Amino acid sequence: MGKYRCTICDYIYDESTGDANGGIKPGTKFTDLPADWVCPVCGAPKDMFEQIKQET
Asked: Would the pTM of this model clear 0.85, i.e. be above it?
């Protein structure tokens, strides 16, 4: 499961936990989020997020 960071406010969307307040279930991939989903902290659209590289 990946993590994505909002480049505006640094909120982290974690695919393993989802976004309970936004009605997004745990395990929801970032690419499967609705097109109108926005950062729950600052309201930035999905295109303002960047994937966090996982260390191996």
From this structure: yes
For 27-55, letters b (16+ CB in 10 Å) and e give ebebeebeeebebbeeebebebbeeeeee
Task: Annotate 11-49 with DSSP letters as a single string.
Answer: -EEETTT-BGGGTBPTT--GGGS-TT-B-TTT--BGGGE
8 DSSP 8-state letter: T
Angle at CA 55, nearest 5°, toward 2 and 1?
Answer: 15
pLDDT single digits (tens) 35-51:
999 999 999 999 999 99
Alpha-carbon distance 21 to 53, whole Å? Answer: 25
Q: Which residue has the tokens 């909002």?
A: 6
